Amino acid sequence: MALAVNTSPIAQRILDSATELFARKGFAASSTREIVEAAGVTKPMLYYYFQNKEGLCRAALATFFESFHAKMRELFAKDVPPRQFLVSVVWLHIEHCNLHRDCARLFYSLMFGPEEDIELFDLEKYTAVSSDLLRASVRRACEVGLVRPESEGTMYTALT
């Protein structure tokens, strides 16, 4: 799913301003005018780097999830006992959301907001890697007897 996000200082300023507005006001209520004013740029600059407001939102989500997935993969590659691994997954999620509050607020507002927002951004595309890693961690816990195999589905659902 890797989405190349432009890392120029101007693009980053636009992305940061948009993410903060999306988190505070909601995606639909944030206008491109407000975003460019907050970033101190012009609308053509927003369109050059991100095409439109939806492109900005996709870039924010991609950045948030790519960094989270990288941390999840690092954790998964470590030889950690299953119980500690599951605890670490939960803490990793909490710490990542805390470190990137605006992106987390944006994601959860889209995830639990109006259906058209979920469809507009195809949120499954961003969460697929996390879901696969969580399923694998629950399977690992089942294999060593930490979780009863018949509870695997329930545990996975609780973690997602």
Detailed description of the structure:
With about 160 residues, the chain is mostly helical. It contains nine helices and no strands. Helix 5 (about 80-100) packs across helix 6. The model has no long low-confidence stretch (mean pLDDT about 85).
Give a quick precis of the structure.
It is built from 9 helices and no strands.
Write the layout of secondary structure elements.
Blueprint: H1 9-25, H2 32-39, H3 43-50, H4 53-77, H5 82-99, H6 101-111, H7 115-121, H8 123-143, H9 152-159
Helix pairs in contact: 1-2, 1-4, 1-6, 4-5, 4-8, 5-6, 5-8, 8-9
Terminal CA distance: 19 Å
Residue share in β-strands: under 5%
Q: Main sheet? A: none
Query: Would you list the SSEs in sequence order as H and E?
Result: HHHHHHHHH
What's the shape? elongated
Question: What oligomeric arrangement do these chains adopt?
Answer: single chain
Number of strands: 0
- How confident is the prediction overall: mean pLDDT? 85
Give start-end ranges of low-pLDDT stretches: none
- Radius of gyration, in Å, reads 18 Å
> Number of helical runs?
9
Class computed from helices, strands and strand pairing: mainly alpha
- Level of helix content? over 70%
Write a concise keyword list for the protein shown above.
9 helices; mainly alpha; 160 residues; single chain
